[in-house]
Write a structure and sequence with these properties.
Aspartate Aminotransferase, domain 2, alpha/beta, globular, binds pyridoxal-5'-phosphate, Aspartate Aminotransferase, domain 1, 342 residues, 7-stranded mixed sheet, 4-stranded antiparallel sheet, 2 domains, 15 helices
């Protein structure tokens, strides 16, 4: 049976070109800061994002958590969107590792408004937690890959500055935001103190994320990475995949966006589906079931016919397009979905 795996853009496998780049990587011990390929990747990403420094880490979760550690002390408060990855999908790390409190602020389609953030910033009484960091996720995963307009990023940056907050971007899918809007990664990243980007989502590497920022804030980043067990040795083999992906796989993300758009249009015409097509700006399609069935039951029915998606709530499902699914896979997925969702 043909399987179309739309669970995540992380399910991709490295292609021949990427594997060749990995095989040819020059390596050294990166804990001694001596892996030339890692150093090159870090330099490339710092350059691309307009920051002084960048640090290669195994995962987006570790990258975000190092950022939280850099900006906060135990007892501090971190403001973020209610559906954000840092709050919902990092196993409670911010509380467990750094002893910080998270202050969720609801966004519209996952996008924070400046007034709502300002209304959530505490006034400074000693019995309150100290607000220390504002996090933005672009694109926003939970809301369906939605994009922050650049002026909103700048406006929120002003809010952060005026209230003495650090400003962190979870840019796991910054590449998608950039390709979809034509705004460069550097412009998107500019107002932020720290930026985390993932190489293992749409760009297709087996693993790896990069945290970047200016010299002062990044001073302790290597130590925290080591503390978390993220110091790796001849990891240039993986960094080479990252370099290859940045050079070769960014532009084709627009194909993933086209596939998501076709998928969303098809799904939205099915009787059991409620889908706000406006939310589908990049490669993620989130939809609700309106016929009383549970997501898990529908997913089981789809999966038994080779179409894989994931639950995003009791009656909510997420499908994500990526480089390992073709447009004809999407058409097949729609044909099958038609039999389950009408
Ligand atoms: C928005 C966002 N941030 C961070 C992460 C974490 O990345 P990782 O799975 O590499 O820890 C993800 C993973 O899907 C994500 O979607």
């Amino acid at each position: 049976m043909k399987v179309v795996d739309l669970r995540s853009d992380t399910v991709t496998r490295p292609d021949r070109g990427m594997l060749d780049a990995m095989m040819q990587a020059e390596v050294g011990d990166d804990v001694f800061n001596e892996d030339p390929t890692v150093l090159l990747l870090q330099e490339m990403v710092a350059d691309l994002l307009g920051k002084d420094e960048a640090l290669f880490v195994p995962s987006g979760t570790m990258s975000n958590q190092i950022a939280v550690a850099l900006h906060t002390r135990p007892g501090d408060e971190v403001l973020l969107e209610a559906g954000s990855h840092i709050r919902n999908y990092e196993s409670g790390a911010a509380a467990a590792l750094w002893g910080v409190q998270l202050c969720p602020v609801s966004g519209k389609r996952g996008i924070l408004a400046a007034d709502d953030v300002i209304a959530s910033i505490r006034t400074g009484y000693e019995w309150e937690p100290v607000p220390r960091l504002l996090c933005v996720e672009n694109t926003n995963n939970k809301a369906g890959g939605t994009i922050y307009p650049l002026d909103r990023i700048l406006e929120l940056g002003e809010v952060a500055k005026n209230h003495g907050l650090g400003y962190h971007l979870d840019g796991a899918r910054i590449w998608n935001a950039s390709v979809a809007t034509g705004v460069s990664e550097k412009e998107i990243a500019a107002p932020f103190d720290t930026v985390s980007v993932c190489l293992s989502k749409g760009l297709g590497t087996p693993l790896g994320s990069v945290l970047s920022g200016n010299r002062t804030i990044m001073e302790r980043a290597r130590r925290i990475r080591k503390r978390l067990g993220g110091g790796m040795r001849q990891v240039g083999i993986v960094a080479a995949a990252g370099i290859y992906a940045i050079q070769n796989n960014r532009a084709s993300l627009s194909d993933d966006h086209k596939k998501a758009s076709v998928l969303a249009t098809g799904l939205s015409s099915m009787k059991s589906v409620t889908l706000d097509i406006e939310t589908v700006e990049t490669n993620i399609v989130v939809f609700d079931l309106n016929d009383g069935r549970l997501a898990l039951d529908v997913l089981q029915a789809l999966s038994s016919k080779g179409i894989r998606m994931i639950p995003f709530g009791p009656k909510t499902i997420r499908a994500t397009t990526h480089r390992d699914v073709t447009m004809s896979d999407i058409e097949l997925a729609l044909d099958v979905a038609q039999t389950v969702l009408t």
